[in-house]
Amino acid sequence: MPLYLTDGLEPAEREALRKHIASGCPRCAGALAEWETTFAAVPLALEDQAPAPALRQTLIDQLPAQEVSPSRPAASVPARKPMTLRHKLKHQSTLRPFAMAAGFAGILVCISAWVVLRESRAIRSNYTDQLNRQKSDIAKLEERLGTAEQRLRLADQTNELLRSPDVRIYALAGADPQPTASAKIFWSPSQNAWRVEAQNMKPAGPGKTYEVWYIPKGQPPISAGIFDVDATGHGTSIAKIPQNAGPLAIAAITDERAGGSIGGVPKGQIQLAYKAE
Amino acid sequence: MVQWAILLYTPPTGGPRPLGSASADSFEASPSTPSPATEQDYALMEAIGRGDQSALVRLYDRHSGLIFAIARKMLADREAADELVLDVFWEIWRKAGRYDSARGCPKTYLVTLTRSRAIDRRRRKTSASGRDASVSANVVRIDVSSEPGVMARTTSTDPAQAPLLAENRAAVRLALAGLEPEQRQAIESAFYEGLTHTEIAERTQRPLGTIKGWIRQGLTKLRDVLRREFEAGP
């Protein structure tokens, strides 16, 4: 879970865990909440700092105006002469058509306003939905762009390595567990860059990862990077080899516990290997 | 006693903690109730969800100092940090209905949102200035000590909160100080600079597995220390 939170999982692993959490697993949701709280505690060590004083009012000004009913002063009404009953009846019969017409007009106005309001709400809702969809699309595109940029950076680094005059290339062949897997190691001693590009590999399995080994003749293996494979079976790693390491006798890739072997000692099964002549 | 304003949450087997209720499994100042500060924040978020503008302003008064401090750490520009604070609280207003109390207390939500928006801004700025293949060249190096000359004050309008905030700050600093230097640096690079593990490995010239181990172990230790600090009680 900490690796998920800090962008430390491969895309396939991240997506799988995201879907699992989204499916409603209460234990994982609770664990994620706790880890999020832990990670969010990091900046609590900072001293509070005051933003620009005007910011508060700017926030208030941005908020939509809330309707306020002003208290209206009572209108002054001129005194009226009291009406006799006959006058009242005559007055009422004269006013009745106008009252009815005003009533109908008022009803028509209300209905029209309601229709217009409903339409505008529907239109606004439609635009809001479109906007939300577009924001979601933008977020996805940005994520893909980030991934593509990362791959491009890795490709640039590989090209740089290939241009090195002392670059050596080793081809590793798949062993029994993965006979169709393959890997190439690009190594430039002058740049001290040891780069592995693996293809057609199966995922390492739950709680496991792949680890690369540089094995000099007559010496213990040296850990030279770990990696996980993506959905296409591709994995890559880059590491440095100690300057005093002896000449390469064997290069191998094994499956180890997640995070890499303990104490730099391979315990897993060999997946791919290269043996120097 | 360290009054703990962060709710460290472990759910009961039945599911997440609903808003307004307490859980015997939640890690808080007292075993069964959240701290008063946290409860206030929950109430404010609920009020904001109902459209209470004054609640948003109170939330701003309580936490804008922390949000601005984070923004200032992550963005080089003070003006950009001010804009970010405004964006964060405006987004809280617009999306108050989306806040899920089961995911963590409001303060966690605020911090997480601030970090996410700061990283978005940094990436937009990097894209605008042209792609740079070197990770170390386009990353703002963060000095995690306080910047000299910056006036630091708590912006909480509740004087009773100041000692609590100071205690919490001291507890978190103590917890971070208990980490190995490389663990702390890796975690802070991940938080403040938004670097992936691969990018941290490239910058530090360490194997990726090592970086993953540092971050996992560091966060685990941080979680355990914060839990112990909380459970120490009065």
Could you characterize what this model shows?
The complex is a heterodimer of chains A (277) and B (234). Helix content of chain A is 43%, strand content 21%. Chain A is an alpha+beta fold and 277 residues long. In chain A, strands 5-4-7-8-1-2-3-6 form an eight-stranded antiparallel sheet, with helices on one face. In chain A, a hairpin with a 4-residue loop joins strand 2 and strand 3. With 234 residues, chain B is mostly helical. Chain B is globular and about 50 Å long. Chains A and B meet through helix 1, helix 3, helix 4, helix 5 and strand 5 of A and helix 2, helix 3, helix 4, helix 5 and helix 6 of B.
Task: Kindly list the characteristics that best describe this protein.
heterodimer; A: 277 residues; eight-stranded antiparallel β-sheet; B: 234 residues; mainly alpha; 8 helices; disordered N terminus
